[in-house]
Specification:
Distance between the termini: 36 Å
Shape: elongated
Number of domains: 1
CATH topology: Ribosomal Protein L22, Chain A
CATH superfamily: Ribosomal protein L22/L17
Radius of gyration: 19 Å
Low-confidence stretches: none
Number of helices: 3
Order of helices and strands: HHHEE
Length: 102
């Protein structure tokens, strides 16, 4: 997921959502859903505060850390075994608001 995160770091949310929509990786689809949820939360918060300004939200910080690894053993022929490793990651996302004046 690190190369996908590098594509959207520092960009506006709408532009990064558009970029992630057309990437074929599974991580891009997961990050797209997370950014959509963050965008909806921010817009809902603005509606509650009754502030209608021309504001754009940018991804100020986004960081991927290694998470837990779950292992599963598959028993194979002739007494051998294979290990399936599922690697998880932790995502930290921070948005900043920059107002655009006309």
């Amino acid at each position: 997921m690190q190369p996908i995160v590098d594509l959207v770091r520092g960009k506006e949310i709408d532009n990064s959502l558009n970029t992630l929509r057309f990437l074929p990786q599974k991580g891009a689809k997961m990050l797209h859903k997370i950014l959509q949820g963050a965008r909806k939360q921010v817009l809902h918060k603005e509606e509650n505060e009754k502030t209608k300004k021309n504001s754009f939200f940018y991804i100020s910080k986004i960081k991927i850390d290694r998470g837990s690894i779950s292992k599963k053993i598959f028993i194979r022929a002739k007494g051998s075994a294979d290990t399936l490793r599922k690697v998880n990651c932790h995502l930290f996302l921070s948005l900043s608001k920059e107002e655009k004046e006309k």
